[in-house]
Amino acid sequence: MAFPHHRILWSVPVVGVVVVLCQSQLRSHGGNVVLGVNLGMTQVTVACMDTHDIPRPIARLEGNEAYKAYMSGTLDSSEHAELWSGPMPPKLAPDEQEKQLAAYLFADVLRNVTQTAAKIVGEPTKIGVIAVPHRVNRATWNSITVASHEVGGAFGDRGLLRNDMSMAATGYIPEHCIAKHSYRGDEGGEYFVLVVNRDAHRFEVATVDLSDFGASFERYKEVVQTRPDMTDFNTNQDKGALHNAIQELLKEHRANPTWRGPPNEIAAIIVVGEMSPKAMSQISSTIASALPEHKDKIQTQDSEYKAAFGAVCHGYQILTHYPDDD
């Protein structure tokens, strides 16, 4: 039995690509298919896991105008060279009504995710880990957490939120997706993943360190300032900027090793986000010209689902190996 790959405006389905996946091939926990969810800037992507421990796309949900407007105002604009060990985004103090409206918005989104996914796979579903843009402000993070508590999920009322950059790197080796962290990296943190992220509001590169502790988002660099046509690639403006951003970020990353040791080897280069096929091709070509010795490590398939794939991987990692963890 096949299930359709949907693109919807919350409750209005539009059939897109068909993903062939029998129900019997889906991995479940406690009778529920556990979902990985990525709350993007304009759309929400949802993934599940098959019985071979390979993440699979379920649906891409196009955000309504309220969702897009809210997400566009959530990014913390301050510069953090090292977000992992650096300062948290500033704590905002919206009034109680705004908090309630934001929590209601995200609760509605998460309910739609659960219901839509259940209809598509034909089995009960629960949300596991939720990936969010790494620069969302504290108030938004808290609102999503409250919403996840209200909706419930695979971890009860504990909402597990992770930044999208780390989640994009978590599933980069599909066949080892839910292996214990110690099987995915090394204690010294020798390997790292380069993530290139492009969507309607962001164009940036980041390094994610891989070790026996899992994927740790280390530092990022903005490629260009936000502009109206971010989903397209401006050859004159973006090519040189991306090339320079990659070189500068790698120089900083290698010159400032984490306490686990110097992460010197690129394990993969993952392109994520919402962009046109033309923009994807141009970005891939630019990366290859900047890092010709690593061009065979560039991954562009399912770019809009990468963080959702990592989220479902991380969810099953916890459920399988660390059931008492949060």
Structural class: alpha/beta
CATH topology grouping of the largest domain = Nucleotidyltransferase, domain 5
State the domain count.
2
Quickly count the helices.
7
Which strand order do you get reading across the main beta sheet? 2-1-5-4-3-6-7
Major beta-sheet overview: 7 strands, mixed
The CATH superfamily of the largest domain is identified as ATPase, nucleotide binding domain
User: How large is the share of residues in beta strands?
Assistant: 25-35%
CATH class of the largest domain: Alpha Beta
How does this structure look, described?
There is one protein chain. With 326 residues, the chain is α/β, with parallel strands linked by helices. The protein has two domains: 3-170 and 305-321, ATPase, nucleotide binding domain (Nucleotidyltransferase, domain 5, 2-Layer Sandwich), CATH 3.30.420.40; 179-302, 2-Layer Sandwich (Nucleotidyltransferase, domain 5). It has seven helices and twelve strands. It has a seven-stranded mixed sheet. Strands 10-9-8-11-12 form a five-stranded mixed sheet. The longest helix has 26 residues, at 96-121. It is globular. The protein starts with a strand and ends in a 5-residue tail after the last helix.
